[in-house]
Write a structure and sequence with these properties.
single chain, 72 residues, alpha+beta, 2 helices, globular
Length: 72
Amino acid sequence: MAQFDPKVQDYIAKSAGFAQPVLNHWRQLVHTTCPEVVEAIKWGIPHFDYKGDFMVVMASYKNHCSFTFIKA
């Protein structure tokens, strides 16, 4: 069951216009491919945890976005 955090939606809404569709797409991909993922804002950016461990983080900056896998 998907566990969406409204704070992640707020983060995306406050991101630059170019970044919003990218972040929304990545968010949906993570939830579609890993329904057990839990999202939260940690250290100011969205984190996606799986079974209690960091799995992926995403962030938006002035001119780019990042999507980083934490563990293999």
